[in-house]
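Project outcomes to date are best conveyed with an example. Our students and postdoctoral researchers have been running inverse folding experiments weekly, and each run begins with a structure described purely in tokens. The record below, which covers 532 residues, was selected by the lab manager from last quarter's runs and is presented without edits.
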């Protein structure tokens, strides 16, 4: 984010914490607050603080933790940064993602280097100061900086973060800090009542750590009676206007508008001093498009390894949805298990998407999907692994029966996807991935240049293997054209079906740059080719 956008106001900080349970939309809430403030013309930045002891999200299992979102500078982050980018339409970097593991490893390195001059090194004040420093850096130059604390208040590992944000008010002035606590109120089916007790306890916990929130957001599965808000306000010692009910909505993109029409907007106005009506027509238009009865329909088969947790592919799904709204198309996602995938699965969909992935599980299914799409003129979008498997499918078709990626078969003679020289042997270190933005030049007259409307593209990357251009002849004989490479021509960035209505694949991850109101052209292309 640029650091010089502020309008010379006093810098403000909004801290978003959670109580009762995590995973109830704290990230979306934080991002939506950001969207509303941005729509008032304020310069807004946002940061996720994760109390995990991991140094980044790169090695976290996506099935458990959801997608690893990649920022333009190559930071491997939590999927909440994807929400931030989609809601704020700003590109994040490493400084927007703070993990305790990263801060602790820096502290310990400093300790080893003798930088503490013989003093004891402690969570308070050393870790808390490091957290505060990361907040100051991430928010530098903005009008409002939003900080979301992962997990729930009271978790052991999050205590330093809670203490750090409490002290932060002493540092910059309480009037420049707004604390927003997101709690969950369950509905008990047997007695048919909403239960506010866990939320009250969560507020007590927060108060126990010295923070009295300025606003409480009450998440419920269904609309709850106002009496719940009143009760939470009463027991929390807060004015009723500080408690905002936020039931589940059919579209998360309605949340910015929901905030703008609630008492939270008044609280935000008096906090920031900006009372301008937020300009939310773009969000309204988007929701309208989303809800409209569609003229077309497209069934997209997602050939995936993890089919039971949508968060694993959240940016891909968001990009597909946004493209479908833009194309006036009702989208149906059909999950195709890569391990059992066969022709019947591929025949039953209008278009196929093979997303990124690591490891050997399900690769043959992905190769079969690409091969089927090539043979049957079925629209295909390959992302990263989806490009690599298409190259394997094509070279096998061209006669190299044992063609493979060395990720799948390290001993194959025909290593059409391989680890380039200089990288071999470092496969397990996590340090050899090609990460973040890389530019590509696109072949004039190619499908991909048409899709982008340009002969240049820059996209985010996260992969280790590359296409082996020694096999270009076979790749072409199998029906593919290399249509985009790194500017020096060394790395293959895009391929496409040579005589195919829509078969495009990229070594990059275009889903990370797709926006709800500006869907990525490669996804739009897939929907356009698949809809009927
Ligand atoms: N596993 C492949 C590689 O490392 C693909 C990675 C991906 O799809 N992001 O190159």
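After processing, the design step wrote out the following sequence:
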């Amino acid at each position: 984010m640029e650091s010089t956008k502020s309008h010379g106001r006093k810098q403000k900080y909004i801290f978003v914490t959670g109580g009762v349970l995590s995973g109830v939309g704290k990230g979306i809430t934080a991002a939506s607050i950001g969207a509303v403030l941005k729509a008032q013309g304020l310069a807004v930045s946002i940061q996720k603080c994760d109390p995990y002891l991991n140094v980044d999200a790169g090695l976290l299992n996506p099935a458990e933790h959801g997608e690893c979102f990649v920022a333009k500078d190559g930071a491997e982050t939590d999927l909440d940064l994807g929400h931030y980018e989609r809601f704020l339409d700003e590109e994040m970097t490493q400084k927007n993602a703070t993990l305790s593991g990263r801060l602790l490893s820096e502290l310990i390195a400093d300790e080893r280097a003798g930088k503490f001059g013989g003093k004891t090194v402690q969570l308070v004040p050393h870790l808390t100061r490091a957290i505060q420093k990361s907040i100051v850096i991430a928010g530098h130059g903005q009008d409002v900086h939003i900080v979301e604390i992962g997990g729930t208040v009271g978790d052991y590992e999050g205590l330093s973060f809670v203490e750090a944000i409490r002290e932060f008010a002493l540092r910059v002035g309480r009037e420049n800090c707004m604390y927003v606590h997101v709690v969950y109120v369950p509905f008990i089916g047997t007695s048919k009542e909403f239960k506010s007790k866990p939320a009250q306890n969560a507020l007590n916990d927060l108060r126990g750590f010295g923070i009295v929130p300025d606003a409480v957001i009450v998440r419920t599965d269904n609309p709850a009676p106002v009496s719940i808000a009143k009760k939470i306000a009463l027991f929390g010692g807060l004015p009723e206007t500080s408690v905002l009910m936020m039931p589940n909505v059919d579209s998360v993109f309605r949340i910015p508008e929901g905030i703008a029409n609630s008492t939270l907007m008044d609280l935000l106005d008096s906090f920031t001093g900006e009372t301008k009506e937020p300009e939310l027509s773009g969000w309204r238009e988007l929701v309208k498009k989303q809800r409209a009865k569609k003229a077309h329909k497209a069934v997209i088969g997602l050939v995936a390894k993890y089919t039971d947790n949508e968060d694993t592919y959240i940016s891909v799904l968001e990009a597909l949805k946004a493209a479908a709204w833009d194309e006036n198309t009702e989208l149906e996602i059909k999950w195709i298990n890569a391990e059992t995938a066969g022709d019947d699965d591929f025949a039953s969909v209008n278009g196929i998407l093979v997303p990124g992935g690591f490891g050997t599980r399900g690769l043959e299914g992905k190769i079969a999907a690409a091969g089927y799409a090539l043979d049957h003129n079925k629209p295909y979008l390959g992302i990263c692994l989806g490009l690599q498997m298409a190259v394997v499918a094509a070279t096998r078709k061209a006669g190299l029966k044992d063609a493979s990626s060395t990720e799948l078969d390290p001993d194959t003679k025909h290593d059409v996807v391989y680890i380039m020289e200089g990288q071999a042997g470092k496969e397990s270190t996590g340090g050899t991935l090609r990460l973040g933005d890389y530019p590509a030049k696109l072949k004039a007259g190619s499908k991909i240049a048409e899709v982008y409307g340009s002969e240049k593209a820059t996209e985010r990357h996260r992969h280790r293997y590359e296409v082996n251009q020694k096999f270009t002849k076979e790749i072409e004989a199998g029906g593919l054209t290399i249509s985009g490479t790194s500017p020096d021509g060394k790395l293959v960035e895009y391929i496409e079906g040579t005589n195919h209505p829509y078969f495009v694949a990229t070594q990059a991850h275009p889903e990370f740059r797709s926006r709800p109101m500006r869907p990525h052209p490669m996804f739009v292309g897939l929907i356009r080719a698949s809809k009927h």
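The pocket of glutamine is lined by residues 356-358, 384-385, 407, 462-465 (CB under 6 Å). The two ends are 40 Å apart (CA to CA). The training component of this project remains on track.
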